[in-house]
Amino acid sequence: MTTTEGGTMTGTGYTLVIGDKNYSSWSLRPWLSLKACGVPFDEDRVRLRMPESKAEIFKRSPSGKVPALKTDLGVIYDSLAIVEYLAEQYPDAGLWPADPAARAAARCVSAEMHAGFQALRNDMPMDLISRFPMPELSETLENNIRRVVAIWMDTRARFGQGGPLLFGGFTNADAMYAPVATRFRTYGVPLADFGDDGTAADYIDAIYALPDMAEWLAGADAEMRERELV
Q1: String of DSSP letters for 30-54
Q2: If 0-12 CB within 10 Å is exposed, 13-18 middle and 19+ buried, where does residue 225 land?
Q3: How far is Cα 5 from Cα 45, in angstroms, rounded to an integer?
Q4: Closest by alpha carbon to 217, among 124, 125, 128?
Q5: pLDDT in tens, the chain (230 residues)
């Protein structure tokens, strides 16, 4: 895999347009699912929070947002659409659970994350390298955190017997919730105060133990060092 800015597609036909690894939670999601498929792909990184960022993204994605997956069939420009596409193209990767009940649950919790949790997004933006105190806890933010903890505990209890992740092995549901795990660590969220019996804390450890997550974190660290030199 090569990392480029303004790069071209590999022989597989895939280039994933992403934002900064330190900040772009939506970019992390399909990146993890692509890695789980085991296929090579190029990264086309657009630096965020720059005057030219929006224009550079529009050159690559019709929505003006990252991520976007460039394929031989065209550009797929939504995180959930990308991971659904990958699940169809690479069924052996197990991006959705094989069991119908587990698969339905995985799709539900993934769609819920895709569509909701606005207070969590706004009040606790992803910043992998930094460590911050908890923001002021509004009722909506508290409800968001409690809901995430409840989802993790429920899915682990019902479907997590085959491994340490939400549905045992890695699925698209983990891709959708991995950025939330990083937020809880960045802001030092005391999960027990939000109903965790230890399951959510263990799940965060499992996300951080993924080799692909370690690769993304190393990339985020390198990018932030780059910014310091500019």
Answers
A1: HHHHHHHHT---EEEE--SSSTTHH
A2: exposed
A3: 5
A4: 128
A5: 333 333 444 456 899 999 999 999 999 999 999 999 999 999 998 887 777 877 877 777 777 778 999 999 899 999 999 999 999 999 999 999 999 999 999 999 999 999 999 999 999 999 999 999 999 999 999 999 999 999 999 999 999 999 999 999 999 999 999 999 999 999 999 999 999 999 999 999 999 999 999 999 999 999 888 877 64
Backbone angles phi, psi at 122, to 5 degrees: -75, -40
In the numeric block, which tokens belong to residue 201?
């804390």
Q: Give the Cα separation of 31 and 36 in Å (integer).
A: 9
Query: Taking Cα atoms as reference points, which of 82, 95, 148 lies closest to residue 121?
Result: 148
67 phi, psi to nearest 5 deg: -90, 170
- What is the C-alpha separation between 34 and 79, in angstroms, rounded? 11
* 228: CB partners within 8 A, 6+ apart: none
Q: Which two tokens stand for residue 99?
A: 């069991």
CB count in 10 Å sphere of residue 69? 28
Measured distance CA(222)–CA(181) in Å, rounded: 21
Mapped onto helix, strand or coil, the DSSP state of residue 199 is helix
Residue 229 is predicted with a pLDDT of 60
With contact defined as beta carbons under 8 Å apart, do 149 and 201 qualify?
Answer: no
Q: What is the DSSP letter of 76?
A: E
Both structure tokens of 219: 């990339």
